[in-house]
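Hey L., structure's done. Input below.
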Amino acid sequence: MKHNRQWVGLICTLGLLWAAPIRADVVVDSPGRFTVDIPSPAKRSDAETDSKVGKTIMHMLTAESADGTKAWILSYNDYDPAQKLDVAGSYEGIIKNVVASLNGVIRSKAEHKLGDVAGWEYIVDSPKDKFSARVRCYMVDHRLYQIMYLSALGTESSPEAIHFLDSFHILR
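Output:
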């Protein structure tokens, strides 16, 4: 009888661990003017990038699952306000570059609204590497936001992916 109670306790404990979500923190980023619910620990990094309208700094907030099978990425960068941006052309170039960097193909692409901000949502598959990414991007004034969930093929619509993407809000 004592052994049965131990097994029941072990099974219950393992069940709770299995059912527990990855710990996430709501990040309020004042310089970036956004909030997002991202798993912790999230890492921050900055990288200089080149674009058709000049150099810019890409600010990134990333998290990865312990087993390396999932990634949550949020980035933003500011373009020179003196530059006249072709927003439609910018979106096309951004999406093309992301797809190329993932060695993937676009499965779907549609306009997406975040409140009154128009943007895009697209799903990229990389059959060779066996992963997919669900990405949203928004241009607000001269700031580009990109939010990406990467994981195994077929998981881009999981509650975890949608929660992360839907948790992103722009502060004004």
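The CA atoms of residues 67 and 102 lie 19 Å apart. The longest helix spans residues 2-19.

-- N.
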